[in-house]
Amino acid sequence: MIKLPDRVVDLLLYSLSAVFALVTALTSTLLPHRAWGAVAACGYLAAALLVYLVRRRDLLTWATWGAVALLPMVIQAVQRAGGRTDRAQEEVLVVEHMGESLLHHGTPYLSRAEIAAIPLDERLLGYRPYQPGMSIFGVPRALAGDFWWTDARIWFAVVTVGALVAAFHFVPSVRALQAATVLPVTALTLATGGDDIPVLALCLLALALIHRGSFAWAGVAVGVAAACKLFALPVVAVLVLYALFTRSWRLLPGALGLPLLALVPPLLVAPDALIENVLRFPLGHGLVTSPAQSPFPGYLISQIEPGGRYLAMGLLGLAAVVIGALLLRRPPRTAASAAFFCGYGLLTAILLMPTTRFGYLLYPAALVFFALALSKDTASSPLSSAARGDTALYRQ
Fold it and tell me: Main localisation, per the record (predicted)?
């Protein structure tokens, strides 16, 4: 198998990404995406031209991320604050509405009756299919008003930058960093919507902290991620098994406690509203259907009548059982193996979910590349010498 030099791969990545961004700018039907593409195409092109001129590949990656994700995000936030209504995807508005509801009503969710009272063409925005912790990103706008810096994407980016800087300080890998930052699906998501990116970044940080032996903080990182979005729950499940089989008990309080703690206020204030938003709507039993309909197998199967949705859910459940059996048969005993399980498990779930988005692929892509980086970095881990000397660690 031919292995291309790193800088050749970088050149291909940035060049193809520039083409993708340009095509997006010219053809996308989503105006925030077109705006992203117009700015990002220039950033990717500049990165391609600098591949052989900048000695530090990691610095070029960080700079490129600033040009293709952070800069277009700030531009759109400024334009939106100035009155443009086409400079944010719907999830940004939803998160900001969650923050407002949390501040004024003690719960980020609307009840089914309240959603039914919203005009039909606006009813979709009444649903908030995220975990309660996501509402924190909407609080700045609820408190201070409509400024560029209160845009929920700005706060998504603040958390993302902090988590990624820490994660890649512990596990330096340019290729994994590129997957988490400058890959077009990742950069586009942060600039136009962004709610998935801090969740992903916190999951990567949790894996990096496990790799370095900081189990309590790893639990806090993944626990915060799961308190924001359900997509982090499979990562929590894998890491809980890791903790049980390696006796890393300090990981458990944060990983399990924080998601449960986040549920307490909405359960006390309006439990039916929580169930309507977090369970009924994603499962297709809301007053309106989710627009997340990428043509993956799960979605295509769910369109078969009669009973397609139940068949898709059955396949998803079967996949969960198979992955669970594999986890119990060969439980993860290193951060790398845990990351591989998370990446491939989420990929399977995304492909089989009846309601899904192409952009969700950023999770398995970043996790698998990070797993490869963790595998290569094993020798530098403070746990590695102990792990190699402990035969029980590898006993099946």
Answer: membrane
